[in-house]
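Lab notebook page, bench 4
Experiment: in silico fold of construct C2
Operator: M.H.
Input chain length: 194 residues
Purpose: comparison with the prior construct
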Amino acid sequence: MNARDKSGAVGASDVRGPGRLAVGAFVAWHVIAIVCAGLALPEPARGWLVSAVGPYLRATGCWEVWDMFAPNPPVVNTRLSARVTLASGEVRLWRFPGLEGLSMAQRTLRQLDRQWSDRLSRPENAAAWPDAARYIGRLHERQGLAPRRVELIREQVDIPPMGAPREQRGRGRSARTRREVCFFTLELPAGEGS
């Protein structure tokens, strides 16, 4: 017999049938997918697990990359910028908004933006390059400017290894190796930053 409250409604704990089973299976799959993606397994087991759960996690926005940590942390800081050539011939440098000067709460909220900009210049994300360049062009159009060319640039600065001399680790980037690579150029017809 179903337990009913005074209004006569059936309690949530009394729901049975295929709907409850489906929700339970979905929650179990989701937890298993996240745990599997986060496991530090040796290859080829890790590759097999990532290929099994990766598409689902990327599609739902739940993919986490732990490459900041061992065994192979990144050895460069990457930042996205763009050279925008205006109809007048003037060239402006646009930088993707950074996290410098933001509070911890603001940094957390902007984390996905940073991840997007870090990954944009990778060759496997080339399909997004034209849209990113058009977006930057539209930002300049909104300021009343007429962009004609947008060049996407990947700026990289080496991260010194642990135990490196103090001058290599300091805030002065002069001791560090800096590289700048234009990885995509988009020519914009007059009036078409969009």
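Observations: Strands lie at 76-86, 91-95, 147-158, 178-187. The chain has a mean pLDDT of 81.
Next step: discuss at group meeting.
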